Automatic annotation (TrEMBL):
Domain VOC: 6-144
SUPFAM superfamilies per the UniProt record, alphabetical: Glyoxalase/Bleomycin resistance protein/Dihydroxybiphenyl dioxygenase
Highest rank taxon of the organism: Bacteria
Designated name of the protein: VOC domain-containing protein
């Protein structure tokens, strides 16, 4: 059974001075709606980033742009390596984030940090950021995010209560911590993949 429901949002990293142009593209060309704009997520930090959230109804796009101060922003490091408007991460909506994390860990997966509950611009949610798909500098890595949004008003209230009681660090802080600790380990090590595993046969898609 699939643990993933759909793609929740895609985050693109923009080169310096390009976030406005890509916002224009996603809003005016594609028809998205700007629903959140933060021009400095870490105003007292040695580095930071901008984040603008654009909604399409069934999914969203987040644009980020690095702010360099005493040190280079991890977003700047990412665009230096991958280029402008490069996909930093895709967020997958889970049926149950807790069940998925437990399952993923038994097979060899490694989160970047603890589960966060926050309002990410598209609404309240639980989210977990994984380490990079490949080993290396945490700020330069492409990685997955897994999240869960409330399915009803009761779940939304529970998440909002938890959100108001916790001071969870965002993914910028989690990645920054990994950079400072020189954590270059990847999301999966594949040691628990069975040596006799083979690709299952293709299954035809059933009708709606």
């Amino acid at each position: 059974m699939s643990h993933l429901k759909s793609i929740d949002h895609v985050t693109y990293a923009c080169e310096k001075g390009m976030i406005e142009k890509w916002a224009w593209f996603h809003i005016e060309v594609e028809g998205g709606t700007l629903i959140k704009r933060i021009d400095d997520v870490n105003p007292d930090g040695k580095s930071s980033m901008k984040i603008w959230c654009i909604d399409y109804g069934n999914f969203g796009i987040a644009l980020i742009e690095g702010i360099d101060r005493e040190e280079k922003s991890q977003v700047t490091a990412f665009t230096d390596l991958h280029g402008d408007h490069s996909c930093q991460h895709v967020a997958y909506d889970c049926y149950s984030l807790d069940k998925f994390i437990a399952h993923m860990k038994t097979l060899g997966g490694h989160p970047r940090g603890d589960v966060i509950i926050q309002d990410d611009g598209f609404g309240i949610l639980k989210q977990m950021f994984a380490k990079g798909f490949a080993s290396g500098h945490a700020g330069e890595a492409t990685f997955p995010e897994y999240c869960e949004r409330p399915r009803n008003a009761s779940e939304a209230r529970d998440m909002e209560i938890t959100f108001s009681e916790m001071a969870g660090e965002g993914f910028y802080a989690q990645v920054q911590k990994a950079i400072e600790e020189n954590d270059t380990t990847p999301f999966f090590d594949f040691k628990k993949m069975p040596t006799d595993w083979s690709v299952p046969p293709v299954q035809e898609k059933t009708g709606a």
